[in-house]
Amino acid sequence: MRNLWIFISRYNAFFLFIIFFTVGIYLTVKNNSYQRSVTLNSSNEVVGTAYERLNVFKRYLNLGIVNDSLAAENAKLKSQLLGLTTVDTTKEVQVIDTVTNQQYSYLAAKVVKNSITLRNNVMTINKGTVDGIKSGMAVIAPQRGVVGFIRDVSAHLATIQSLLHKDTKISVTLKKNHVLGSLVWGDGNFDIKKAFVKEVPNHIKMYVGDTIVTSGFASFPAGILVGKISKANVATNDNFLSAELNLFTDFSTLQYVYVVKDKKAEEQKALESIAKPNE
Amino acid sequence: MNSRIIIINVIRWFLLLFVQIFLLKNMGFYDLSTPFIYVLFLLLLPFGIPNILLYLLAFGTGLTLDAFYDTMGVHATACVVLAFVRISFISISLNRDAIDDPEPSLSYMGFQWFSLYAFLCVVAHHLVLFFLETFRLTEIGYTLMRCGLSCIFTLLIILLVEFIFYRRTPR
């Protein structure tokens, strides 16, 4: 302590300089709007650039996973194509039918911005009105799993209200017996790998490991894999059961998504919005 | 003797700040060269002054200037840097025990020592001042030019003033 004191008093000029200089800089930045704005802007710039770099790095690290999922998807598509071509060759008429009546088409989009840490997470993708994207369209993950709904659309970009959002509700069913439920995230749960199926009727028996798929009642096509139940039959206060499930979608490594275009969406909406006066 | 030094310094403070604020503030060549003569007050403070008092005086003088220039903190910071350079230069160039001159002025210390002393202090002060004022590195060439030209201007005036008040003292 004594030595420290001697050291400080010996170099007091320097320490006093540091103190006064800091105060001076502080006063400058605090009291002059120009200097303050420059400081804030440049620090924002630094932070932004750092994040950008980090993002590039992260994308590189995830390359393996993305590759795997792309390969798997390729295989899946190829097998589907094989199925289609066989149908093609046997029944020509059906081909025309299936093409014209095809209800859903998929559009691949790259995730420009993703967030998973917030209470309400919103993503941005690089497709917009130019590519025919409209608000309310469903978004699914490349391999399996759901992502969310399109929220706002600009010319070349669109935001997705992801499943990790307190207002997102997706109609799902149990794959084995087609019992309806609704998929939600949140409610004190901030784990991006978990979600809940709610509003399952009380008499239904769910088991750990049961697969949950989309019902097809909302804008999602039917039968898209959502997740597997990890904790079944959680009693709630109302007359319904709920279950906890592990999502198939890995939101933390999501880089490409598919936007589902439902050709009959507008027709369905228009039909359902015709209100009967006696209802 | 002691009170005389204080009175002289107080008068010098008022005089230099008066000249700086009411005369030199309105002067400048194409916004390139502005003299800051008030640093002479800090240069001419007596040798025996404690460091803390020197810093306080520098900071206070800077703040007074800031109040008139509407640049809160910029001059204060520059003056603090000047004080640091002053202390360092004096401790390096002079033997602390053998200093019997009252103040580091041209009359006591000679032209060579004083001009180097004034040059270093003024350059440090102006560098900090102009870079804090611009606060970015993109216009570095322009800032350096302003700084250099202002340094020359300030130094010229400081030497001029020192020669005007030159007293031949027996050494």
Automatic annotation (TrEMBL), chain A:
Transmembrane segments: 12-29
GO biological process, any: regulation of cell shape
Pfam family, one: MreC
Keywords, in A-Z order: Cell shape, Membrane, Transmembrane, Transmembrane helix
GO CC annotations on file: plasma membrane
Domain Rod shape-determining protein MreC beta-barrel core: 111-261
Domain of life: Bacteria
Entries under Gene3D superfamilies matching the protein: Rod shape-determining protein MreC, domain 1, Rod shape-determining protein MreC, domain 2
Family classification: Belongs to the MreC family.
Name the UniProt record assigns to this protein: Cell shape-determining protein MreC
UniProt source species: Pedobacter psychrodurus
Lineage: Bacteria, Pseudomonadati, Bacteroidota, Sphingobacteriia, Sphingobacteriales
Gene: mreC
From TrEMBL, chain B:
Keyword set, alphabetical order: Membrane, Transmembrane, Transmembrane helix
TM annotation in the entry: 6-24, 36-60, 72-94, 106-131, 143-166
Protein name from the UniProt record: Rod shape-determining protein MreD
Organism this protein belongs to: Pedobacter psychrodurus
